[in-house]
User: Fold these one by one.
Assistant:
Number 1:
Amino acid sequence: GLRHSLRNSGLFVVYQPQILLKERKLIGLEALVRWRTESGALIGPDRFIPVAEQSGLIREIGAFVLREALAVLARLNEEGASGLRMAVNVSAVQFRQRDFLAELLSTVRASGVDPRNLELEITESIAMEDAAYVRQTLADIRAQGVQLAIDDFGTGFSSLAQIKKMSIDRLKIDRAFVQDLKETTLETSISGVIAQLGQRLGIQVLAEGVETEEQALLLERLGCQEAQGFLFARPMEVDALR
Ligand code: C2E
Ligand code: MG
Ligand code: MG
């Protein structure tokens, strides 16, 4: 079904705003893929991305999402919303494909978007991978100006030594840690630890899944500059976004 939908416009991309906490200003968007099946049911990426990874379809889906997201950014730029960043999720399977970098660069070039306005969200497992090939690909991507973010940070196994060594632009605090935030335990919160880590290493920190005003205020107090979540906006289709 997924293969059929990919060929017949059953997949589409929605965009969730990312904001600067202090000014509550729009600074970027995250592209999130959606699947509407032939029967009209909506299936979330948490369910179909693993299937796409196993079947190899992730390669085409990833390329589709990247193309769409860049086209949307190019159009928003034309309409005057310049300087926005577009974040696209990349799965480990895509990343290990030998021609990933070449394909990425040719898609960016074709879109006319400045590579510095594109960000790839990678998992902790990719970021921490020891393989020389992976390390080199990450360095090459960044050398082209494309930004790198580690998604769901804090849920996997990150080596602090490795994070210090590698060139990463942004850590995304997993929403589980945002949900845990309480005024009384702020001092010992994981979100606070990640915000400090970012400050020390000169890496931006963005909190995911911010749902309440209280969470936004606590995050700001912890020194986290950027956020994304239902409090500000849900992921939405381009027309609603504009
Ligand atoms: P993610 O990259 O960590 O994306 C954030 C998820 O949190 C999204 O779920 C988003 O809709 C949801 N979210 C945002 N704000 C809030 C909030 O305030 N509260 C709550 N409860 N949830 C919030 P979504 O769209 O279902 O995506 C799930 C995961 O699927 C993503 O997690 C990402 O890992 C993966 N994914 C989505 N699109 C793609 C894609 O194009 N390629 C790949 N490889 N993975 C994708
Ligand atoms: Mg993400
Ligand atoms: Mg995440």
Number 2:
Amino acid sequence: MKEIRFLANTKQKSIENGVTTWSSPSNIALVKYWGKRKEQIPENTSISFTLNQCKTITNLTYTKKEDNLNFSFDVFLDGEKQDDFKPKIEVFFNRITPYLSFLKDFHFKIETKNTFPHSSGIASSASGMSALAACLMSIDKELNPEMNSQFILQKTSFLARLGSGSACRSLEGDLVVWGEHKSIVNSSNLFGVKFPFNTHNNFKNYQDTILLVDKGEKQVSSTIGHNLMHNHPFSQQRFVQANQNLEKITAILQNGNLDEFISLVESEALTLHAMMMSSMPYFILMKPNTLEIINKIWAFRKATNSKVCFTLDAGANVHVLYPESEKDSVLQFIKNELVVYCQNGHYICDNIGKGLEQL
Ligand code: DP6
């Protein structure tokens, strides 16, 4: 079924060519999206912190072409042509064709760069697809100048979701919810919405230091992992749990209870990986150093009463989350005890960000 409100508008101005550049960040889920239905509809509601430093910057050049029979585009990563990205973008263009009427009218040159390693378990698909969706919406806006900014934001998130589910949560800060939930007014399976409540000061400018345990390509992509939730023995219970956790974290983010935050976020991370380990076929994305880091964090917390905790994406890297008030002490702990477990000693210091930016 097509979402009528976002369908392509027929009354359009004409443009010949142009260029637009957007930067969009990655995000880190606190309650995880893992499992989806057709057309990128999530099985449960998820919520994420928007990041600040881990970004994709995409420059889209569009030139009117002779015919409008096919898509025509080239993709460059860090200035190098990347034909292996094309199939994913072709799928994306096919999915969004009903919503953008101009996709076959132009040749697109998509030039993109990341501030973090590609396929490192940091969701480059989230920042990449949201940046591309924002570029395409700039063209849509030029053709249909009457669209208001609220509608543009929703439609950008809607399109980004069709590229990669988690991408729909990258457009705004600090916290974005995706998926219908009774506790979140106006929440939707079709796009992300800003967390609608005041967040406690404990969570202001929360820190996320990403420990790069393994920078290689993932053995199992998120898309395959999501599909394995279809015949998974624990999936239904997991979707119920995630929606309950969303309700709990909605209260925690307002009341500032950091101990409850830690339990919920760490349990979500381990449950995500438990789902992978209990899929058929089963798989493990954590590495020995992922577990070393988790154990060190637990020991540090016990010894110091720190409120540091971890979460994981679909990869081996560890996101170390902590309040801004503990910035110096936790960073020191990371340097002293955790960097040794990172590939080539690499880590990225990030914090909560604001989302999309037009450059
Ligand atoms: C583990 O958004 O990458 O990061 O929709 O197939 O592109 P697709 O999947 P993707 O899945 C991300 C899953 C996760 C959890 C999360 O970000 O909520």
